[in-house]
Amino acid sequence: MKVTRPNKIVFTQSHPLKLQIGADSLHFKRADLPLSNQVFTSRSYLLPRSSALRLKAYLDETKLFLKPFGMLDEADVVLAFSFGDAPTVNQHLQQIALSCRKDKPLLPLLLQQEIADGMVLNNRDIYHIKATEYQTTTDVAVAALSLTPKRKVMIVAQAWHAQRCIDTCKSLGWDVIGLRCSNLFPKDDPQPWVRHPLNWVIKESHREQAAGHEISEQFQLI
Questions:
Q1: What is the pTM of this model?
Q2: 118/169: higher pLDDT
Q3: Do the strands 77-80 and 7-12 form a parallel or antiparallel pair, or are they unpaired?
Q4: Relative to the CA of 26, which of 19, 103, 119, 166 has its CA 20 to 30 Å away?
């Protein structure tokens, strides 16, 4: 792919959704996307050539989002990963985790702190994974290992974050049975990289180079 300058990255709210990098474009058919009524605004950024190429490689190599799969009856525990700091998506993830518990009442719930916020955690086998510092996906998956000897896990996560959650858990020894997910992005979140699909893929494609807040500042994510 030949990327010319300036390297404009465009997310177009059309039918189908389109993400364009220079002259290259990636189309998302609505049937392929996770079901959601959320409408995203069109958005564009100018990236350095090296960053545009990195994003292109990420899009070529990565499964961007997942849909729910797996049988809850086969899981021994639910592990729920938050998405951002705002309550918007995390409350939806909380509802998803609680619905798993409703379907299987004795299923332990391991909830990252942003999902557990507002819950009365005096119920048996509902655990709050909290920390005073920012928690990465790996931090949460590692902390959860110490809360239960059970390893057959149903993951609860945001759909675009889900593949990394699953890969991280598998690398640590969790037996991932399935996924339940939210398809939302929190437009009001203090973390710019989770506010919009384009922000998210820019951040994820550069996550090995810098932290989310550094990437957001570097590329002026809004």
A1: 0.90
A2: 169
A3: unpaired
A4: 166
